[in-house]
Write a structure and sequence with these properties.
Layout: H1 2-12, H2 15-21, H3 33-42, H4 47-66, H5 76-87
Length: about 100
């Protein structure tokens, strides 16, 4: 739903146009302005967390390809946990093995 809203909002040119076409399919009632503002505010929800996730992936990739020593003192999961602590806000699940 949010993806659809963000695509429509950027294509129709803003609130006035969207409000004129966004109607309840049963009642014909237009979208309430407070609902529009909530949708608008939700567009960037967790954008920072998603950016940090990509930074974690990039850092992990660089670390494994440049400094990691197979069979050394750290496993790839140790490296992952070390990088995770530097780049993430929400702690991982203990069973997380996504690299």
């Amino acid at each position: 739903m949010l993806f659809l809203f963000t695509q429509i909002d950027s294509q129709v040119g803003g609130m006035d146009t969207l409000m004129s076409i966004a109607k309840n399919y049963e009642t014909g009632e237009t979208l309430l302005e407070d609902v529009y503002l909530k949708l608008l505010a939700a567009r960037t929800f967790r954008a920072g967390s998603l950016s940090l996730r990509q930074i974690k992936f990039a850092t992990m990739d660089l670390e494994l390809h440049s400094m990691y020593v197979p069979g050394g003192s750290e496993t790839i999961y140790d490296v992952d946990q070390r990088i995770f602590k530097r780049t993430q806000v929400i702690p991982p699940l203990p069973e997380d093995r996504f690299l």
